[in-house]
Amino acid sequence: MARRVMTRTGVNALLAPIKQEDRRLLIRPMLEETARQSPERTAIIAGDVAISYGQLADQVARCAAGLLELGLAAGDRVAVLLPNTMEFATTLLAAHYAGLIAVPLFADYPPAEQRDILTQTAARVLIASPSLLPLVPDESIPALTRVILTGVEAPGCLTYEALLESPPLGASVDQDANGDPIAIIVYTSGSTGRPKGVAHTQTRLVNRADLFIQTLGITGSDRTLSAQHLGRPLFLVANLLAMLRVGGCLTLVDPPAPDRFWKCYGELQPTYYLAPPGYSYQLMDRPGAVQINHSRLRFWINVGDRPSAELRQRVTAITGRPFLNMFGMTESGFLAITSPTKPTKTDAIGKPMAGVEFQLVAPDGQEVAPGEAGRLRIRTPNLMVGYWNDTLLTHRTIGSGWLETQDLLRIDEDGDYGFVGRRSDIIVRNGANVATALVVESLLTHPAIAEAILVGMPDRCDGQLPMAFYRLRAAASDPGGAALHAWVAAVVDAWSIPAGFYPIDHWPLTPNGKIDRNRLIDMAAGLAAVAR
Fold this sequence. Notes:
9-stranded mixed beta sheet; Rossmann fold; GMP Synthetase, Chain A, domain 3; 15 helices; 5-stranded parallel beta sheet
């Protein structure tokens, strides 16, 4: 099907900063200013549809008005269960226009979790695609004021298209008293515990977009591709908001099948792209990675989890462009980035970005010496507001003015920070701490191994048993558990030697693209039981 594209016109490289008096519903004036300057320039491409900035601003204003006509008021929650489509991007922006709080739901989450999120946020409206609506338990539907479906009519439901028939939203809606309304509540995947609702304000989201733009020199001539869901703050900021801020072009892909990705990549020729390492590996394994034209790409950005040295080398060799590792969290946005002009050190996350402070502390709370591993504390004006309806956890996490993380980092003589591990990854075997980092480093020195992860499997006698999973280099033969046992035993204490060594083709991933360590622990338990 032919793509429908509006005529493009020139655009200023960078838009003028938003005036301080407009820093309330920030996303609305940002989009309206871009639409005013470049109404015919392509804003978003999704499938066979391309929408200009003028059209986008009009549709978002109509959708916002339609939501308010349902009786919603500023601060009400709107749950959204949509693929990475034009409707999803428009809905997110419309909620921000209207002063509502968007609550993205994710197709990867089980029905019980969808129910819990709807209950905890007391969402009044659900906007969903017909194919994803069955993921919402039937008992959750009666608590909603309205269910809105895209593309079809159904009894008791409003169509998404009907929202767009409303006249565009006029004057600004009522604001929160502090002038910085909550824009979105994003639930974490639960990879480090139970899922938590992380609340972000519009000001902080836009500030993060500005920080991303300034750090990487993003301009209106840039274009990017999002194969990850815009409901995740890192992709919302770096893909959607950054492009809207400077007048660039965003292409949305869903589902993110690797072959389809490369087709879209070839058509768009993005200047930058963000991906978690698991998805980057899938992409680099496809023939399209070496067949496609990478000439317009400025850099490939890793987010969400630490990349292996092999992945950095593969991406750089295939694209011929810098591979940047950008460190960030759902609770804080982007925090640090490696240099595009200097060699990347092992496990490096680079230097903190402008306005971000790092502090590395020992268990007693004292700062550690350079070169020593310490727990990371973060201070930035763009932290989350807190965890939705969880005052105690919010106080524990950011009550000191610092974001208290479980990440272990060290700083080297050049002032670069390196990722060591997570406190939650510490494995205690029969009262002794396993040398997790040393075991992994040892495995990575083996010529056949590209990636390795050590997890702690619960054990009745030892408390935890270290279990190693590894991914082989291309065309390498599996050395086997006995050989790897001997390899690791040469450099670590006896209690740190893994009780099992398991090859794996692809890492299990959480919905936001991180390696699912809980799933690895379950897999280790199953494999160990079979071996007994």
